[in-house]
Amino acid sequence: ILNVEQSPQSLHVQEGDSTNFTCSFPSSNFYALHWYRWETAKSPEALFVMTLNGDEKKKGRISATLNTKEGYSYLYIKGSQPEDSATYLCAFGTSYGKLTFGQGTILTVHP
Amino acid sequence: NAGVTQTPKFRVLKTGQSMTLLCAQDMNHEYMYWYRQDPGMGLRLIHYSVGEGTTAKGEVPDGYNVSRLKKQNFLLGLESAAPSQTSVYFCASSYEGPSGAQHFGDGTRLSIL
Fold first, then answer.
1. C-alpha–C-alpha distance, residues A21 and A19, integer Å
2. Burial classification of residue A43, based on how many CB atoms lie within 10 Å of its CB (0-12 exposed, 13-18 middle, 19 or more buried)
3. Which of A24, A69, B2, B54 is deepest in the core (most CB within 10 A)?
4. Shortest alpha-carbon distance between residue A38 and chain B (Å)
5. Please, what are the averages of pLDDT over each run of 10 residues along chain A (111 residues)?
6. Whether A107 contacts A88, CB under 8 Å
7. Are B71 and B30 in contact (CB under 8 A)?
8. Inter-chain contact A103–B42, Cβ cutoff 8 Å?
């Protein structure tokens, strides 16, 4: 069983704060690293899929970086808004076709 | 624009009963997945399929069976339901396997009494 760890488990920030989360994954047999946003009572939605060491992706105020050699990815949110409140999941993919998800970071943004 | 559709959305079963959860996708995706979500456990892969007619075990396959007879459908079966299988089940599909974003259904909430 692959070990994908996310930290912190939960995070409370004030509106306007910038924040970041970490995803740690095995550095061997890497194929892809995914980030998903999961709002309460909805289903997970893909934010980014990264496949190359050094990849950086950006979507609006959210960005992500990838270091496959040391086995970590960071997700950054600039100027957090209450609508950013959600659980953020990362998932590690190997060539076998499946993903292993971390347990997620629960973000709460207070107005 | 349906995407991934799961049926049913809710179900209550008694221990020992059987049922089948249906996942249908209209995006012509090759890869399909069944996950279960439990408090504090995140999403855990039950079974997955890399194409029509194929299935493979995930992290927690015991007590479940799957079939992918048609490319657009992925069925998850519980032959003899147990209380430990009370969970929320999510189906997902992707075009490019591990390098493609997964598209999730809305989930099926299953309670086993």
1. 7
2. buried
3. A24
4. 11
5. 88 96 91 95 94 93 95 96 96 86 95 94
6. yes
7. yes
8. yes
